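Query structure, 145 tokens:
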């Protein structure tokens, strides 16, 4: 499964002072996320899922956040949104499900092979209907945040 993370939405779901250092908060989340690449975890529905790859979308001040050192860029990617993060997520999901060159020439896959983490209802409405979606609570629990 490919995990696509709305970093701003997940970071903003916890009142831990993230607003004082958005890039730092994003980097801390990215560091925790990186340890889950290749692991099998309980998905939001309770079924086991293997996280084959993570695409973390950052926007605004958080675009200064760096990917953790030593991660495989083919399995952990930080996407810096040109404008808003929602549009970048929708574009990436469409690219992933169409086998676009943006996804390193990956073969076309079903939206069911993706799991987008966001609580943003507007974003959820823009995603293809077969894409799985989980709220940040699931990811926060997984990360122990």
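Result returned for the query:
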């Amino acid at each position: 499964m490919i995990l696509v993370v709305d970093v701003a939405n997940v970071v903003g779901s916890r009142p831990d002072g993230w607003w004082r250092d958005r890039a730092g908060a994003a980097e801390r989340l990215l560091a925790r996320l990186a340890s889950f690449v290749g692991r099998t975890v309980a998905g939001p529905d309770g079924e086991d899922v293997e996280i084959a790859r993570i695409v973390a979308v950052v926007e605004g001040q958080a675009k200064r956040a760096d990917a953790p050192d030593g991660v495989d860029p083919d399995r952990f990617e930080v996407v810096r949104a040109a404008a808003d993060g929602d549009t970048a997520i929708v574009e990436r999901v469409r690219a992933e499900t169409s086998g676009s060159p943006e996804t390193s020439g990956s073969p076309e896959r079903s939206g069911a092979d993706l799991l987008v983490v966001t609580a943003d209802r507007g974003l959820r409405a823009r995603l293809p209907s077969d894409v799985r979606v989980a709220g940040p609570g699931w990811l926060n629990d997984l990360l122990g945040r």
